[in-house]
Amino acid sequence: MKFRSWISNSSSSVNSSPSLFSQETNSLSSLQSNLSLLTLPSVPSLQNLSPGNLNLAISTRCLNSLNPRNAHVTSLAMHNNLLYAASSNEVNVFELTNFTLMDTFNDKDSSSGSIKSVAFVDGKIFTAHQDCKIRVWKLTPVKKHKLIATLPTLEDQLRRFVFPSSYTNVRRHKKKMWIEHHDAVSGLTVNDHLMCSVSWDRCLKIWSGENLRCTESIRAHDDAINAVVVGKDGTIFTGSADKRIRVWSKEKNSKIGLIATLEKHKSAINALALSCDGSVLFSGSCDRSILVWEKEDSANYMVVTGALRGHTKAILCLINVSDLLFSGSADRTVRIWTRGNNQGQFCCLTVLDGHRTPVRSLMATAETGGSDGGVKLFSGSFDGEIKVWQIVVSSSSGSPMMS
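The structure corresponding to this sequence follows.
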Protein backbone atom coordinates (compact mmCIF):
# COMPACT_ATOMS: atom_id res chain seq x y z
CA MET A 1 0.00 0.00 0.00
CA LYS A 2 1.51 3.34 -1.06
CA PHE A 3 1.98 6.31 1.22
CA ARG A 4 1.02 8.16 -1.95
CA SER A 5 -2.48 6.67 -1.89
CA TRP A 6 -2.98 7.46 1.78
CA ILE A 7 -1.97 11.10 1.35
CA SER A 8 -4.10 11.49 -1.77
CA ASN A 9 -7.16 10.23 0.04
CA SER A 10 -6.56 12.51 2.99
CA SER A 11 -6.16 15.53 0.73
CA SER A 12 -9.63 15.02 -0.64
CA SER A 13 -11.13 15.73 2.76
CA VAL A 14 -9.70 19.22 3.10
CA ASN A 15 -12.58 21.05 1.45
CA SER A 16 -15.26 18.93 3.07
CA SER A 17 -17.53 19.93 5.92
CA PRO A 18 -16.25 19.29 9.49
CA SER A 19 -18.44 16.22 9.85
CA LEU A 20 -17.20 14.75 6.58
CA PHE A 21 -13.63 15.52 7.60
CA SER A 22 -14.17 13.64 10.85
CA GLN A 23 -15.55 10.64 8.96
CA GLU A 24 -12.60 10.76 6.57
CA THR A 25 -10.13 10.92 9.46
CA ASN A 26 -11.74 7.89 11.10
CA SER A 27 -11.60 6.06 7.78
CA LEU A 28 -7.92 6.93 7.39
CA SER A 29 -7.23 5.77 10.92
CA SER A 30 -8.88 2.44 10.18
CA LEU A 31 -6.93 2.10 6.95
CA GLN A 32 -3.69 2.95 8.69
CA SER A 33 -4.38 0.35 11.37
CA ASN A 34 -4.61 -2.24 8.63
CA LEU A 35 -1.41 -0.98 7.04
CA SER A 36 0.37 -1.24 10.37
CA LEU A 37 -0.47 -4.92 10.64
CA LEU A 38 1.79 -5.67 7.70
CA THR A 39 4.73 -7.91 8.42
CA LEU A 40 7.37 -6.05 10.40
CA PRO A 41 10.94 -6.00 9.09
CA SER A 42 12.99 -8.98 10.19
CA VAL A 43 15.31 -6.59 12.03
CA PRO A 44 15.87 -6.82 15.80
CA SER A 45 14.87 -3.87 17.95
CA LEU A 46 17.72 -1.79 19.27
CA GLN A 47 18.18 -1.86 23.03
CA ASN A 48 15.71 0.69 24.37
CA LEU A 49 17.14 2.42 27.42
CA SER A 50 15.28 4.67 29.84
CA PRO A 51 16.44 8.28 30.33
CA GLY A 52 17.63 7.27 33.81
CA ASN A 53 20.05 4.77 32.29
CA LEU A 54 21.76 7.67 30.52
CA ASN A 55 21.53 10.06 33.47
CA LEU A 56 19.33 12.31 31.38
CA ALA A 57 16.24 14.33 32.20
CA ILE A 58 13.93 15.88 29.62
CA SER A 59 11.48 18.73 29.99
CA THR A 60 8.86 19.49 27.36
CA ARG A 61 6.40 22.34 27.12
CA CYS A 62 3.82 23.22 24.49
CA LEU A 63 4.41 26.92 23.86
CA ASN A 64 1.66 27.56 21.34
CA SER A 65 -0.81 26.07 18.89
CA LEU A 66 -0.99 27.68 15.46
CA ASN A 67 -4.02 27.22 13.27
CA PRO A 68 -3.48 28.10 9.61
CA ARG A 69 -6.48 29.09 7.55
CA ASN A 70 -6.68 25.69 5.88
CA ALA A 71 -6.70 22.23 7.39
CA HIS A 72 -4.22 19.48 6.56
CA VAL A 73 -0.62 20.57 7.14
CA THR A 74 1.47 18.74 4.53
CA SER A 75 4.92 20.22 5.10
CA LEU A 76 6.80 22.50 7.50
CA ALA A 77 9.98 24.41 6.68
CA MET A 78 11.99 27.17 8.34
CA HIS A 79 14.01 30.02 6.88
CA ASN A 80 15.23 33.37 8.24
CA ASN A 81 13.19 33.11 11.44
CA LEU A 82 10.04 32.33 9.45
CA LEU A 83 7.98 29.13 9.60
CA TYR A 84 6.43 28.01 6.31
CA ALA A 85 3.40 25.74 6.71
CA ALA A 86 2.20 24.19 3.46
CA SER A 87 -1.33 22.84 3.13
CA SER A 88 -3.88 21.74 0.58
CA ASN A 89 -3.69 24.86 -1.58
CA GLU A 90 -1.59 27.57 0.11
CA VAL A 91 1.41 28.32 2.28
CA ASN A 92 1.03 30.17 5.58
CA VAL A 93 4.09 32.03 6.87
CA PHE A 94 4.52 32.71 10.59
CA GLU A 95 7.00 35.01 12.31
CA LEU A 96 8.78 32.96 14.96
CA THR A 97 9.40 35.83 17.34
CA ASN A 98 5.71 36.12 18.22
CA PHE A 99 4.07 33.30 16.21
CA THR A 100 1.93 35.74 14.21
CA LEU A 101 0.76 35.04 10.65
CA MET A 102 2.88 37.24 8.36
CA ASP A 103 1.67 36.16 4.93
CA THR A 104 -0.40 33.59 3.04
CA PHE A 105 0.40 32.85 -0.59
CA ASN A 106 -0.66 30.47 -3.34
CA ASP A 107 -0.84 30.21 -7.09
CA LYS A 108 -3.92 31.69 -8.73
CA ASP A 109 -4.13 28.49 -10.75
CA SER A 110 -6.73 26.54 -8.78
CA SER A 111 -5.54 23.27 -10.37
CA SER A 112 -2.11 23.43 -8.72
CA GLY A 113 -3.34 21.07 -5.99
CA SER A 114 -1.84 20.21 -2.63
CA ILE A 115 1.58 21.62 -1.74
CA LYS A 116 3.87 18.75 -0.75
CA SER A 117 7.17 20.39 0.19
CA VAL A 118 8.99 23.72 0.63
CA ALA A 119 12.71 24.45 0.07
CA PHE A 120 15.03 27.46 -0.13
CA VAL A 121 17.85 28.10 -2.62
CA ASP A 122 19.77 31.29 -3.39
CA GLY A 123 17.20 33.57 -1.77
CA LYS A 124 14.27 31.91 -3.53
CA ILE A 125 11.41 29.85 -2.09
CA PHE A 126 10.44 26.66 -3.95
CA THR A 127 7.13 24.82 -3.48
CA ALA A 128 6.32 21.32 -4.80
CA HIS A 129 2.79 20.72 -6.04
CA GLN A 130 0.29 18.00 -6.80
CA ASP A 131 0.00 19.22 -10.42
CA CYS A 132 3.56 18.00 -11.22
CA LYS A 133 5.10 21.48 -11.08
CA ILE A 134 7.53 23.33 -8.83
CA ARG A 135 6.81 27.01 -8.22
CA VAL A 136 9.40 29.64 -7.36
CA TRP A 137 8.70 32.66 -5.15
CA LYS A 138 10.55 35.64 -3.78
CA LEU A 139 9.90 37.62 -0.60
CA THR A 140 9.24 41.27 -1.40
CA PRO A 141 10.37 44.21 0.78
CA VAL A 142 6.81 44.48 2.15
CA LYS A 143 7.00 40.86 3.38
CA LYS A 144 4.75 39.41 0.71
CA HIS A 145 5.58 36.43 -1.50
CA LYS A 146 5.54 36.90 -5.25
CA LEU A 147 5.50 34.11 -7.86
CA ILE A 148 8.47 34.54 -10.21
CA ALA A 149 8.63 31.22 -12.09
CA THR A 150 7.16 27.77 -12.58
CA LEU A 151 9.45 24.80 -13.19
CA PRO A 152 10.25 23.71 -15.72
CA THR A 153 10.38 27.27 -17.05
CA LEU A 154 9.04 28.15 -20.48
CA GLU A 155 12.56 29.16 -21.52
CA ASP A 156 13.92 25.75 -20.54
CA GLN A 157 11.16 24.02 -22.51
CA LEU A 158 11.61 26.18 -25.62
CA ARG A 159 15.34 25.53 -25.81
CA ARG A 160 14.72 21.77 -25.86
CA PHE A 161 11.41 21.13 -27.61
CA VAL A 162 12.87 20.66 -31.12
CA PHE A 163 15.21 17.86 -30.05
CA PRO A 164 13.81 14.29 -29.99
CA SER A 165 16.21 13.44 -27.15
CA SER A 166 14.31 15.90 -24.94
CA TYR A 167 11.32 13.54 -24.70
CA THR A 168 10.65 10.36 -22.79
CA ASN A 169 7.76 7.91 -22.71
CA VAL A 170 5.65 8.35 -19.60
CA ARG A 171 3.02 5.83 -20.63
CA ARG A 172 1.91 4.10 -23.79
CA HIS A 173 1.49 6.58 -26.66
CA LYS A 174 2.29 9.56 -24.41
CA LYS A 175 5.54 11.46 -24.20
CA LYS A 176 6.72 14.37 -22.07
CA MET A 177 9.95 16.30 -21.80
CA TRP A 178 12.40 14.68 -19.40
CA ILE A 179 12.70 17.99 -17.55
CA GLU A 180 9.03 17.67 -16.51
CA HIS A 181 7.59 15.60 -13.68
CA HIS A 182 4.45 13.77 -14.76
CA ASP A 183 2.98 13.04 -11.32
CA ALA A 184 2.82 14.86 -7.98
CA VAL A 185 6.13 16.32 -6.79
CA SER A 186 6.41 14.76 -3.34
CA GLY A 187 9.65 16.17 -1.95
CA LEU A 188 12.38 18.81 -2.28
CA THR A 189 15.81 19.01 -0.68
CA VAL A 190 18.77 21.31 -1.14
CA ASN A 191 22.55 21.03 -1.23
CA ASP A 192 24.63 24.10 -1.98
CA HIS A 193 23.14 25.75 -5.10
CA LEU A 194 21.39 22.61 -6.32
CA MET A 195 17.91 21.38 -5.54
CA CYS A 196 16.67 17.80 -5.78
CA SER A 197 13.03 16.98 -6.48
CA VAL A 198 11.32 13.60 -6.25
CA SER A 199 7.93 12.56 -7.46
CA TRP A 200 5.31 9.88 -7.53
CA ASP A 201 6.44 9.48 -11.17
CA ARG A 202 9.42 7.56 -9.67
CA CYS A 203 11.97 10.12 -10.88
CA LEU A 204 14.69 12.14 -9.18
CA LYS A 205 15.57 15.47 -10.81
CA ILE A 206 18.37 17.96 -10.17
CA TRP A 207 17.78 21.72 -10.63
CA SER A 208 20.06 24.74 -10.60
CA GLY A 209 18.99 27.30 -8.05
CA GLU A 210 20.70 30.02 -10.07
CA ASN A 211 19.25 29.64 -13.58
CA LEU A 212 16.28 27.39 -12.61
CA ARG A 213 17.14 24.77 -15.24
CA CYS A 214 16.73 21.04 -14.82
CA THR A 215 20.20 19.60 -15.26
CA GLU A 216 19.51 15.90 -14.79
CA SER A 217 16.70 13.38 -14.43
CA ILE A 218 16.87 9.72 -13.48
CA ARG A 219 14.31 6.96 -13.07
CA ALA A 220 15.20 6.20 -9.46
CA HIS A 221 12.61 3.66 -8.24
CA ASP A 222 9.98 1.14 -9.30
CA ASP A 223 7.18 2.93 -7.45
CA ALA A 224 6.30 6.38 -6.09
CA ILE A 225 9.09 8.24 -4.27
CA ASN A 226 7.88 9.59 -0.93
CA ALA A 227 11.04 11.04 0.66
CA VAL A 228 14.42 12.55 -0.16
CA VAL A 229 17.31 13.86 1.96
CA VAL A 230 20.81 14.99 1.03
CA GLY A 231 23.97 14.90 3.13
CA LYS A 232 26.48 17.71 3.51
CA ASP A 233 28.79 15.80 1.15
CA GLY A 234 26.11 15.79 -1.57
CA THR A 235 25.04 12.15 -1.14
CA ILE A 236 21.33 11.81 -1.97
CA PHE A 237 18.97 9.31 -0.32
CA THR A 238 15.53 8.50 -1.78
CA GLY A 239 12.80 6.42 -0.11
CA SER A 240 9.97 4.84 -2.05
CA ALA A 241 6.74 2.92 -1.94
CA ASP A 242 8.76 0.10 -3.53
CA LYS A 243 10.14 -0.50 0.02
CA ARG A 244 13.67 0.47 -0.99
CA ILE A 245 16.09 3.25 -0.15
CA ARG A 246 18.52 4.20 -2.88
CA VAL A 247 21.74 6.11 -2.35
CA TRP A 248 23.05 8.41 -5.08
CA SER A 249 26.29 10.29 -5.54
CA LYS A 250 26.83 13.32 -7.73
CA GLU A 251 30.41 14.39 -8.13
CA LYS A 252 31.22 17.83 -9.46
CA ASN A 253 30.71 18.07 -13.24
CA SER A 254 29.44 14.49 -13.45
CA LYS A 255 26.10 12.69 -13.58
CA ILE A 256 24.23 11.09 -10.72
CA GLY A 257 25.32 7.54 -9.99
CA LEU A 258 23.65 4.83 -7.92
CA ILE A 259 26.00 3.66 -5.17
CA ALA A 260 23.71 1.49 -3.02
CA THR A 261 20.22 0.04 -2.62
CA LEU A 262 19.10 -0.53 0.96
CA GLU A 263 16.41 -3.18 1.46
CA LYS A 264 14.95 -4.20 4.82
CA HIS A 265 11.52 -2.58 5.07
CA LYS A 266 8.47 -4.69 4.27
CA SER A 267 6.17 -1.78 3.35
CA ALA A 268 6.29 1.71 1.82
CA ILE A 269 8.96 4.10 3.08
CA ASN A 270 7.46 7.44 4.07
CA ALA A 271 10.26 9.42 5.72
CA LEU A 272 14.05 9.76 5.89
CA ALA A 273 16.41 11.70 8.16
CA LEU A 274 20.19 11.95 8.50
CA SER A 275 22.29 12.37 11.63
CA CYS A 276 24.16 15.65 11.96
CA ASP A 277 27.40 14.17 10.58
CA GLY A 278 25.63 12.15 7.87
CA SER A 279 26.94 8.82 9.12
CA VAL A 280 23.55 7.49 10.27
CA LEU A 281 20.35 7.30 8.24
CA PHE A 282 16.89 6.84 9.76
CA SER A 283 13.99 5.52 7.67
CA GLY A 284 10.33 5.42 8.68
CA SER A 285 7.71 3.20 7.13
CA CYS A 286 4.08 2.08 7.18
CA ASP A 287 5.28 -0.94 9.19
CA ARG A 288 5.56 1.26 12.34
CA SER A 289 9.34 0.85 12.50
CA ILE A 290 12.22 3.28 12.23
CA LEU A 291 15.27 1.49 10.85
CA VAL A 292 18.74 2.74 11.76
CA TRP A 293 21.40 2.50 9.03
CA GLU A 294 25.10 3.17 9.63
CA LYS A 295 27.92 3.67 7.16
CA GLU A 296 30.37 0.85 6.64
CA ASP A 297 33.40 0.37 4.45
CA SER A 298 31.90 -2.10 2.02
CA ALA A 299 30.03 -2.29 -1.24
CA ASN A 300 26.76 -2.04 0.69
CA TYR A 301 27.62 1.53 1.79
CA MET A 302 25.28 1.23 4.80
CA VAL A 303 24.04 -1.60 6.98
CA VAL A 304 20.98 -1.70 9.17
CA THR A 305 21.90 -1.95 12.84
CA GLY A 306 18.41 -2.31 14.27
CA ALA A 307 14.92 -0.88 14.58
CA LEU A 308 13.29 1.69 16.84
CA ARG A 309 9.80 0.60 17.81
CA GLY A 310 7.07 2.15 19.91
CA HIS A 311 4.72 3.86 17.51
CA THR A 312 1.49 1.93 16.99
CA LYS A 313 0.83 3.14 13.46
CA ALA A 314 2.77 4.24 10.38
CA ILE A 315 5.76 6.58 10.65
CA LEU A 316 4.95 9.66 8.56
CA CYS A 317 7.82 12.09 9.26
CA LEU A 318 11.31 12.24 10.78
CA ILE A 319 13.80 14.98 11.62
CA ASN A 320 17.16 14.90 13.40
CA VAL A 321 18.49 17.93 15.33
CA SER A 322 21.23 18.17 17.97
CA ASP A 323 21.57 14.39 18.34
CA LEU A 324 17.83 14.08 18.90
CA LEU A 325 15.61 12.16 16.50
CA PHE A 326 11.95 13.21 16.31
CA SER A 327 9.36 10.89 14.75
CA GLY A 328 5.75 11.73 13.87
CA SER A 329 3.17 9.04 13.32
CA ALA A 330 -0.36 8.24 12.26
CA ASP A 331 -0.89 7.27 15.91
CA ARG A 332 -1.07 11.08 16.57
CA THR A 333 2.08 11.19 18.70
CA VAL A 334 5.64 12.47 18.39
CA ARG A 335 8.46 10.45 19.93
CA ILE A 336 11.87 11.84 20.86
CA TRP A 337 14.86 9.50 20.63
CA THR A 338 18.55 9.76 21.45
CA ARG A 339 21.49 7.39 21.10
CA GLY A 340 22.86 5.57 24.13
CA ASN A 341 26.48 5.48 25.22
CA ASN A 342 27.16 2.21 23.40
CA GLN A 343 26.49 1.10 19.85
CA GLY A 344 23.12 -0.51 19.40
CA GLN A 345 21.52 1.48 22.21
CA PHE A 346 18.79 4.09 21.85
CA CYS A 347 16.46 5.78 24.30
CA CYS A 348 12.94 7.06 23.76
CA LEU A 349 13.13 10.13 25.96
CA THR A 350 9.43 10.95 25.88
CA VAL A 351 6.21 10.82 23.87
CA LEU A 352 4.43 14.05 22.97
CA ASP A 353 0.63 13.80 22.90
CA GLY A 354 -1.97 16.39 22.00
CA HIS A 355 -2.65 16.09 18.29
CA ARG A 356 -6.12 14.87 17.35
CA THR A 357 -5.13 13.52 13.92
CA PRO A 358 -1.99 11.95 12.38
CA VAL A 359 1.22 13.96 12.64
CA ARG A 360 2.24 14.60 9.03
CA SER A 361 5.20 17.00 9.30
CA LEU A 362 7.95 18.04 11.70
CA MET A 363 10.44 20.91 11.80
CA ALA A 364 12.97 21.57 14.55
CA THR A 365 15.80 23.94 15.28
CA ALA A 366 18.47 24.05 17.98
CA GLU A 367 18.08 27.22 19.98
CA THR A 368 21.03 29.48 20.62
CA GLY A 369 21.35 31.85 23.54
CA GLY A 370 19.51 31.67 26.81
CA SER A 371 20.43 29.60 29.82
CA ASP A 372 18.47 26.48 28.89
CA GLY A 373 19.47 25.89 25.28
CA GLY A 374 17.38 23.09 23.85
CA VAL A 375 15.33 22.53 20.72
CA LYS A 376 12.20 24.20 19.43
CA LEU A 377 9.98 21.66 17.69
CA PHE A 378 7.03 22.26 15.36
CA SER A 379 4.59 19.43 14.63
CA GLY A 380 1.81 19.68 12.04
CA SER A 381 -1.16 17.34 11.71
CA PHE A 382 -3.90 16.51 9.24
CA ASP A 383 -6.46 18.72 11.01
CA GLY A 384 -4.32 21.79 10.32
CA GLU A 385 -3.00 22.35 13.83
CA ILE A 386 0.68 23.20 14.35
CA LYS A 387 2.00 22.72 17.87
CA VAL A 388 5.11 24.54 19.07
CA TRP A 389 7.18 22.66 21.66
CA GLN A 390 10.14 23.61 23.82
CA ILE A 391 12.42 20.60 24.40
CA VAL A 392 15.29 20.71 26.91
CA VAL A 393 17.45 17.68 27.62
CA SER A 394 19.79 17.93 30.59
CA SER A 395 21.93 15.69 32.73
CA SER A 396 20.41 14.47 35.97
CA SER A 397 22.47 17.11 37.73
CA GLY A 398 20.56 19.77 35.83
CA SER A 399 23.20 21.00 33.38
CA PRO A 400 21.88 21.39 29.79
CA MET A 401 23.11 18.89 27.19
CA MET A 402 22.50 21.21 24.25
CA SER A 403 23.31 24.81 23.60
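The helical segments are 3-11, 18-36, 154-158.
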